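Weekly sync notes, structure subgroup
Attendees: PM, AL, DS (notes)

Item 1: joint prediction request from the bench team. They want all two components modeled as one assembly rather than separately. Inputs as received:
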Amino acid sequence: MTARIAYADVEVGTELPGAVFPVDRATLVRYAGASGDFNPIHWNERFARDVGLPDVIAHGMFTMAEAGRIITDWAGDPGAVLEYGVRFTKPVVVPDDDKGAEIEVTAKVAALLDEEARTVRVDITARSAGQKVLGMARAVVRLA
Amino acid sequence: MPLDESFVGRSYPPTEPYEVGREKIREFAHAIGDANPAYADPEAAKALGHPDVIAPPTFVFSITFAAAQTVIQDPQLGLDYSRVVHGDQKFAYSRPVRAGDRLSVTSVIESVSSRAGNEIVDVRGEVHDASGEHVVTVHTKLVARMTGAGE
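Output from the run, pasted for the record:
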């Protein structure tokens, strides 16, 4: 595994490049197919409203995948991600219009864990429509 | 009806192997909009030290969740699956999942609890390859919301 960021070059507070990920209904249909998660709350507005949701919502695992991209993009080698965990706190609501929704992701180095193993903990913030959609979103990454 | 707490610690036999294909990884990476070459180009993956293309960190969830279905839909457990939402999710890797892997999942019910009317089940999936090497441990928390509260 060969991350492109060196352990020696980061410190607590180092910010990763942030990103904004657009998501529309077509994104969710594609993710449903690729992941095998065909729960209708992710594509059927009538069903979503029937179970008390404001509209169709994104798959939690899709949001987790997008948030993780800023870690793997930063590390270069996705295999450098040793641990990755999140809590799903709010849904990403995806309206059926020409804009859809956006997931805004930022992250920073929160702890240097092990100098010998060159591991750091990265804490992630993911927001949509002004609300945090993930809690306790953390990754352990092995740097170069 | 409360969940059957005798399920805590229960372990289910390993699943039939799931064979990870290059094209399935490519399809998944495309679905999350990720053009990282380690997911699509075997040479790029090899340059990073991997024997073949690797999968994005969350890819393996589809495999472990399919295994967990057997567990959480066990009628004896008593979980109202129609009310279930995904609470927490965590992956702890020994190595990345890669094309050619034949992965088998052993699911264990880690805990069963009730809080504020919600019923909570933690399932751990241990994923091993065909040689028995550990690949990843997957923790999934499922919450059945407000059973009996009429919401």
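Discussion: The domain at 7-23+59-142 of chain A is CATH 3.10.129.10 (Thiol Ester Dehydrase; Chain A).
Action: AL to compare against the crosslinking data before next sync.
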